[in-house]
# Entry
Amino acid sequence: MCGIVGYTGFEAAAPRLLDGLEKLAYRGYDSAGIALHERGGLVTARAVGKLGELIGLTRGGSIYRGTCGIGHTRWATHGAPAARNAHPHLSQDGGVAVVHNGIIENYRILKAELEAEGAVFSSETDSEVIPFLIAKYLKQTGEPEEAIRRATARLVGAYALGILFSEYPGRIYAVRYQSPLVAAHCEGCSLIASDVPALLEYTRQVIYPAEGEVVCLTPDAMTVTNADGKAVRHLPHTVEWDSAAARKDGYSSFMEKEIREVPRAMEQTIRSLTDGEGRCTDLGGGIDPARLRETEELCFLGCGSAYHVGVAAQYCAEKLLGIPVRTEPASEFRYRRVPLAKNCLAVAVSQSGETADTLAAVRESRRRGIYVLGVVNVVGSAIARETDAVLYTRAGPEIAVATTKAYCAQLCAVYLLIAAILRAKGNEEEARRLERAVAALPECAAAVVGRAEKIMTLASSLSGARDAFFIGRGADYAACMEGSLKLKEITYSHAEAYAAGELKHGTISLIEEGVPVVAVLTQPHILAKTLSGAEEVRARGARVIAIAGEGVALPEDFADRDVISVPVPDPDVSPAVSTVAMQLLALGVCRARALDPDQPRNLAKSVTVE
Ligand code: F6R
# Structure
């Protein structure tokens, strides 16, 4: 989704803004722009395409002298990717510049109202009404903060805004509602951004403004006022990530680096949720065991891969806990009336902690009196703030758009949550068994990562395939959902996950000579069943690639080159290992097709709008 940066200090702002935008490029974008206080007014530069276009246009920012500015990467929602639609947008009189992340749902009404007053717009965006409104209220009030408050009071939707006024050189204003925003003041400058990687070169002390608060930044200070205009004090959060974590470090892509970081992400997550003996009694202080004891139902909520984490957890939880467990895509849950028990524990899974649908599902659950636990990677993010308790995954910053290490860390966290519930309910033996299985996951994942080249070489032989199917049963099916999503996202192949037993109820008609079918085989009790599904498609010409638990006996005529063995500490937690093999498979196909795995077309890292 769109990225916002802002810098005000004593150095030239433009190169810093361009650098900040590069750090946010992982969020996904199709055009970019900057605005600066320059020669007594506001100037803007905007370009379609990769950031290199904007960098070229501004010669790396060297044509500007201004020390205060805002920048934006745009992921088109309203209006095509075009320079006229790129941000920053200016008010008609050129006095106000705005960058916006989010969607203004009532922009048509506002536009019509402003047009009736003589406004002439130059873009098709929903965002352009914002500087026009702010300029209108500035004329009425003569006071920038009040103008921002009045303008934002008219907006329906989601927004994080960075704002410049030509009359107030050296100042940036910022405000948010439902969209993410971080701000910081450090030696000699103040900054805003959509996400912390853009700030890490400067500081690790940041604040997360609350909804509706107006932040005013100058080189010397940062002040925050609430909706009544009263000053608010924020204690800075310390970000644990350092700037090295957000660099490629010699790898061909962030995605490759991040897959190789899976074992560490798991290890750090497990360590932070367990005590010295590997017990997860209160999950590192994340939750009160008494609350866990009362749990009579579990409901996992998330989107995309985070939803798949819930599906994998559901198989494990319903088997071990014997209570009802459901998993809902957050985007559906929010508009349904899913009946939930009074003592249901809702678990909202989100890497970014800012996915709009997951946040809405959290709000809806809490409104209904359900206790919500967040499983979140970004400290201080909206979902972390709005849930009743948080289990942080410690995957570090994830830059590649398609999630890998965060997904695996999330699985560790939800398995440990299940172990903690088992213990709270008095089933110490099963809790210990599960904890030991989770403790073994980083080593098993490291063994798969150690076979990365072999897996990617196998993948390159699939690079011509247009379609692929992923089949498995039980937890293997959950893993298949994630494996097929990875392939779709970064290779643009059509890929489908199927519960192996469902295949013959229709989809088998799509199987033809040479179609790759990835069969995940880690569940001993239903292995024979999945294998017979694999045999059925082989008989119809499919090329079956087996991702099999070590020691699983496969039919003798299975081609060795098409078997990936994965060590599985326990079938209940196998998706955390088998998925790593599928992440590498997808990366291998992507590499063979010379595609960019980090920024797949049309995708955004943080989906902060509906
Ligand atoms: C897939 C992927 C997405 C995210 C989804 C939720 O590779 O990255 O499906 O999992 O957009 O994002 P978070 O976890 O940030 O809520």
Remarks:
- The CA atoms of residues 453 and 588 lie 9 Å apart.
- The first strand starts at residue 3 and ends at 9.
